[in-house]
Write a structure and sequence with these properties.
alpha/beta, 294 residues, Rossmann fold, nine-stranded mixed sheet, 13 strands, 27% strand, Alpha-Beta Plaits, two-stranded antiparallel ribbon
């Protein structure tokens, strides 16, 4: 089984538009949206949810006022200032509670409950391009790296159960924990880069992360015609580091138009559709090439 992850050093580079086009073009695949903090693949693919599960991660403290002795031990030891006084009683601010459990361990009256915390939901859905595994964290919730890992496990198992040879992932942007989880076990990382100084800088960071995990890097330069100097600099850097530039895309209002219509670019009559088809063939060939060891 091959696993291709489309990533970017920052948000807004066109990563999801590219991944949606690849999803349209690829055969025998499971699609996986790993950008769980701000997912948007479902907007383009209009999924029909078949499986819906709660994502439970961590715990959240809550004080039983009837059992509380008003001793103040929880207030004194909470490092996150999550415990506050309310009249002669104490309460936990859920927006500040980090679920560390110190108050639970130290409460002499055992008056603090510590239930599991529901942080979001994850889904398995049908789309016109094939099965989609995706999720949505609730506002302000964390542990997105753990949710990304869960989604990848579900996508891999679904591909195995259905005899599909590819998991195609829309990864998280940046270089944080969700991105590390997105890249885990990948056959190829396709980095979507904008030709700007900041875009090149962010690309360097995410490419270095791929290098650390020995994941081959393919480079797709989006809006390439807006800054030919930076495009040349990105190509030069890619050549020096052994990355494959699979192509570039010009700036084109058709991208926005396809998003408004909730279509992948390859479902429209824009010239970008043929360009993306050629790029996909290069990406697919790279992903199927034997991995170099060492």
């Amino acid at each position: 089984m091959r696993e291709i992850v489309v990533i970017s050093g920052k948000g807004g580079t066109g990563k999801t538009s590219v991944c949606a086009a690849f999803s349209h073009l690829a055969a025998d695949k499971v699609i996986c949206d790993l950008d769980v903090d701000a997912p948007d693949m479902h907007i383009l693919l209009d999924p029909q949810v078949r499986v819906k599960e709660a994502f439970v991660s961590g715990n959240e403290a809550g004080i039983d006022r009837d059992a509380c002795r008003r001793c103040g031990v929880c207030l004194a030891h909470c490092r996150f200032d999550a415990v506050k006084r309310e009249g002669d009683a104490y309460a936990v601010d859920p927006l500040r509670c980090e679920g560390c459990g110190v108050c639970v361990a130290l409460c002499p009256a055992h008056a603090i409950a510590f239930p599991d915390k529901e942080c979001g939901e994850w889904y398995v859905s049908d789309t016109r391009f094939g099965p989609l595994v995706h999720a949505q964290l609730y506002p302000g919730q964390e542990n997105s790296g753990r949710l990304v890992t869960l989604l990848k496990q579900q996508a891999r198992q679904l591909a195995k159960d259905r005899g599909l040879g590819l998991v195609l992932c829309d990864g998280s942007p940046g270089v944080g924990c969700p991105v590390i989880s997105s890249l885990s076990g990948a056959s190829l990382a396709v980095t979507v880069v904008e030709p700007t100084p900041s875009g090149r800088h962010d690309f360097e960071r995410v490419a270095a992360l791929c290098d650390h995990f020995r994941i081959p890097v393919a480079v797709l330069i989006n809006k390439a015609d807006l800054n030919p100097h930076e495009e040349a600099a990105i190509r030069e850097m890619a050549a020096a580091r052994g990355y494959t530039v699979v192509g570039n895309l010009p700036f084109d209002p058709a991208v926005t138009g396809s998003m408004i219509r909730r279509k992948a670019l390859t479902e429209t009559d824009t010239p970008l559709a043929a360009t993306l088809a050629d790029i996909w063939e290069r990406v697919r060939t790279l992903a199927e090439a034997p991995r170099k060891r060492g």
